Amino acid sequence: MSDPFSINGGAAVAMVGKDCIAIACDTRLGSQSLGLANNFEKVFQMGKTTFLGLTGLATDVITLREDFRLKNNLYKLREEREMEPKTLANLVSTSLYERRFGPYFVSPIVAGLGKGGQPFICGFDLIGCIDFAKDFIVSGTASDQLYGTCESLYEPNLEPEDLFETISQALLNAVDRDALSGWGAVVYVVTKEKVVRRVLRTRQD
Amino acid sequence: MADCSFGITGKDFVLLASDQSAGRSIIKMKSDENKIRTLSPGLALAFGGEPGEFTSLGKRRLMGGTSNELAKRGGESDMIKRDTNNFVDYVERNLRLYQIRNNTELLPAPASAFIRKELANSIRSRSPYAVNLLLGGYDKVHSEAHLYSIDLYGTKAILPYAAQGLGIYVALSTMDKYWYPDITRDEAVELLKKCVAEVKLRLAYQFTFNAIVIDKEGVKNLPL
Amino acid sequence: MPGLSFDNYQRNQFLAAKGFGTPRATSTGTTIVGCKFAGGVVIAADTRATAGSIVADKNCEKLHRLAPQIWCAGAGTAADTEMVTQLIASNLELHSLSQNRKPRVITALTMLKQHLFKYQGHLGAYLIVAGVDPTGAHLMSVQAHGSTDIGHYQSLGSGSLAAMAVLETHWKPNMTKEEAVQLCAQAIELGIWNDLGSGSNVDVCVMEVGKDAELYRNYKTPNVRESKTRSYKFPRGTTAVLKERSWQVVDEQVVATGEPMEVDA
User: Fold this and answer.
1) Which residue from A103, A156, B34, C27 lies 20 to 30 Å from C246 (Cα-Cα)?
2) A64 has a chain B CB within 8 A of its CB
3) What is the pLDDT of residue B220?
């Protein structure tokens, strides 16, 4: 009972592959050590190939998911086109920094394919500092563990099917070492042609 | 005040049960308080407040502190727990207003979004509502039963069965064991009785319960 | 919605009062330096971003453009250095457009210090501002509370002491451009090796009178990751999948619907 980031628990991770990206999250929602729900997904589709992951305080995860859904829809109506991942990243950054002195307790990640199918991933801190990365981005209560698994398992230019295995194993093995994360996992693998969503078999403890 | 409430869904119904005690700290002042509110023909909620939250001001007031003296104290201590009834009244009347304006009831899903948002906003105000609730509803359009657990921060979980308050310690395992997706109404009532029995057996606190069932016919009292 | 929103402040105070601590933002434990030379100025930075003891970003950019010829290096709270820099950059551009003059370093510095002073140190931005303008080459620094310094060489951040050791021993007046770049890069490298908050690579930006500013991103890369000798690639099918669903990504085609509008020829 000390940190708003670790009341509800949860983890998310994104990776870049060869002309593809993958983004994954666990599905636990807890209240301290009590598990409340195992259907609480933290990755949301914002465009055809653009995804937003939100971990942290669950009420803020829901609030921001709805906020960005609204902003994303208004953008689509006004511009008659979809938001680029880079644009979404800047939107997330400015929206969070707007609350510089009263932040939402979240660690968002963005993953998607930009113009011409260019893979893009990035992460943020709670006040919107963007962390651009070429390989992977982690967030949530299992982020320390994810840094470890990703740093060792990741390699560049993986094909979508291989990227799926790598991100899944990185996530699974990380959340198994975090009491506040787990209870199911969802992985999205995104290529220019299609999006594949897989629900993983995970430990239930 | 210690609370205890349960919610169980089946294919086309939701059961809600809540304890009936009211009081302050360790003192029970009432044992027949209704803490389940029907919001519309297909929607109801069981609510409870967090015990011992921001009551310093409320207590002082009881002990004879003047409002002037209270105003001077400032800081976080001037956060008052607002009555949970107050919040439920607010929700009930806003949902009624929606029905009058649009000539249609808000379905359970959007109603849950509305209630969650009110709580998420409330927690950012000077005097937040410290209310946890279980929202049960029957969606007539999709012919589905829904149960939502929403806490004082505005954390919403969509669940097949849930407990809140002291019940989580003793009844969740019972629910885990006996609940299954196509549970019949009679079996659900039996399960609820098991939970209540567990509470009576394991908790030092003495609770009395009332319960309702929500289905396509509407909200009905459920004798336990 | 102009300005910052303090809406959540109350809520977070309440959370803090309940015993939930206030989390810390990504801060750049950093080494940044700047150094003047005959006919210009150079600034440099390391590329490590930290969150507590975790390295959050191994190759971040701490050199920000305020104007084409004015750059600054940032230390402190990462989001603050980024945002305050973007804000001042945009105000400088508007200012130079309205005044029909090239922006000056002193203008940038004044705007920064007035903004930071207004926030009483709550914006944790520590910057080295450098650039060339019609009045020559300049090197200054500004602290989070709004105080500023001017000097021939500057260093800031958690690695500033290590960097300053290099600057104090090797700095001399009227250096050449190459000497200055070397000195700055060496100072940063000392920060990289000796300060835990700094690491990875060296970024350098050179601003010379009468020339375009030049950014040397990853000027030095003394910490290249050794490539793995074996692959950890998993055989396909390693991960157990419960459910799978996929959908095609289709390019939206604008389909004209309804009757074409009649227009005058």
Assistant:
1) A156
2) no
3) 97
- Interface touch A102/C246, C-beta < 8 Å: no
- Please give the residue of chain C at the shortest CA–CA distance from A199: C243
CB contact under 8 A, A57 and B153: yes
Q: Are A112 and A49 in contact (CB under 8 A)?
A: yes
- As a whole number of angstroms, the distance between CA A136 and CA B59 comes to 53
B5 close to B134: Cβ distance less than 8 angstroms: yes
Chain B partners within 8 Å of A39 (Cβ): 157-158
Whole-number Å distance between alpha carbons of B150 and B48: 11
Residues of C in contact with B79 (CB under 8 A): 14, 17
ipTM of the complex: 0.94
3-state secondary structure of C16: helix
- Residue-wise pLDDT for C158-190, tens only, equals 999 999 999 999 999 999 999 999 999 999 999
| Nearest CA distance, C23 vs chain B (angstrom) | 17
Q: Residue C14's pLDDT is what?
A: 82
Tell me the residue type at B149: S
Spatial neighbors of B62 by CB under 8 A, at least 6 apart, are none
Does the pLDDT of residue B67 top 60, yes or no? no
Catalytic residues of C: 30
Q: Do A59 and B153 touch (CB under 8 A)?
A: yes
Contacts with B167 from chain A: Cβ below 8 Å? none
Helix (H, G, I), strand (E, B) or coil at B224: coil
Give the chain A residue whose CA is nearest to the CA of C87.
Answer: A94
- For B173-200, the pLDDT digits (tens) are 999 999 999 999 999 999 999 999 999 9
Instruction: Mark the ranges of chain A whose per-residue pLDDT is less than 70.
Output: 1
**Could you tell me which residues come within 8 angstroms of residue B139 by beta carbon, excluding any fewer than 6 positions away?**
B42, B107, B108, B109, B145, B146
Q: Nearest CA to CA, how far is C61 from chain A (Å)? A: 9
Give the up-direction half-sphere exposure of residue B96: CA atoms within 13 A in the CB hemisphere: 9
Residue B66 pLDDT greater than 60, yes or no: no
C51 contact A CB<8A:
yes
Inter-chain residue contact B128 with C17, CB threshold 8 Å: no
Tokens 């055809």, residue located:
A48
Cα dist from B152 to B50, B54, B215, whole Å: 8, 13, 27
Show residues of chain B in contact with A56, CB under 8 Å: none
User: Residue B71: its pLDDT value, please?
Assistant: 42
d(CA C68, CA C66): 7
pLDDT at B69: 43
